[in-house]
Design brief:
The structure is a single chain. The protein is built from 5 helices and 7 strands. It is α+β, with helices and mostly antiparallel strands. The protein has a 3-stranded mixed β-sheet, with no helix packed on it. Strand 5 (113-114) and strand 6 form a beta hairpin. The longest helix has 13 residues, at 51-63. The protein is globular and about 40 Å long. The model has no long low-confidence stretch (mean pLDDT 90).
């Protein structure tokens, strides 16, 4: 918990118990949760936490670069603690989102310009059926 507290302090964020707990949840769960998923989990541990606190905390983390926002489906925002450039895979069957570790030529160090345009962010999404669902369907 002390390392998480220091991470928030380093970013100029007041390390409240709720913020530390939400950051811990994000670091321990690579599920790419929505704010509502975070709220549902936090409510089990802190019944008095409000949705507003969760949404404000997520917004603060986004503003300070602690997390990234994913909008793969176009209908909901998901949050990712891994802020390094990487791609994602969305399973159309179960809805899970996975990190995909592939080499993107535009994500390499020193490759922040494409056709004269400066790149600030890279988002690569793949959609299909995950290997777990494929196994279940073939059984």
């Amino acid at each position: 918990m002390e390392a998480l507290k220091q991470k928030l302090v380093d970013e100029g964020i007041k390390p409240t118990f709720q913020r530390i707990s939400i950051l811990k949840y994000l670091e321990e769960n690579s599920k790419h949760p929505t704010a509502d998923m975070i709220y549902d989990f936090m409510r089990k541990k802190m019944p008095t936490i409000s949705k507003t606190t969760v949404y404000n905390t997520v917004h603060t983390f986004l503003e300070n670069g602690l997390i990234n926002e994913l909008t793969i489906t176009g209908q909901e925002s998901r949050y990712d603690i891994n802020t390094h450039n990487h791609h994602h895979f969305l399973c159309r069957n179960c809805g899970k989102i996975y990190d995909v570790d592939i080499q993107c030529p535009h994500g390499l160090p020193g490759k922040d310009v494409v056709d004269g345009h400066k790149i600030d962010e890279i988002h690569g999404y793949f959609k299909g059926i995950c290997q777990d669902c494929l196994r279940k369907n073939s059984s």
